[in-house]
Known about the structure:
Layout: E1 3-7, E2 10-13, E3 23-28, E4 31-36, E5 42-46, H1 49-61, H2 63-74
Antiparallel strand pairs: 1-2, 2-3, 3-4, 4-5
Amino acid sequence: MPKISEFFGIIVAMFYDDHYPPHFHAIYGEYKATFSIEDFRILEGRLPRRVISLVLEWAFLHREELGKEWELAKEHKPLFRIEPLE
Length: 86
């Protein structure tokens, strides 16, 4: 699971050859959720409300980069790190 960012104990990752629609994974302790890149809705899983807010804030700032990461992952190319939320 390539980690693309980490902030406030939240790990954001993407998998190579993952299923559509384009999405990313957010992991916080025992919680996990999958977010759509297109509209940032939660596709599956759950996270505490505050963590969802932080992930969404980060995702809005990096929407374009997330799309590029998805394309790289589909092509099995190395993923880059995206700046964490500060």
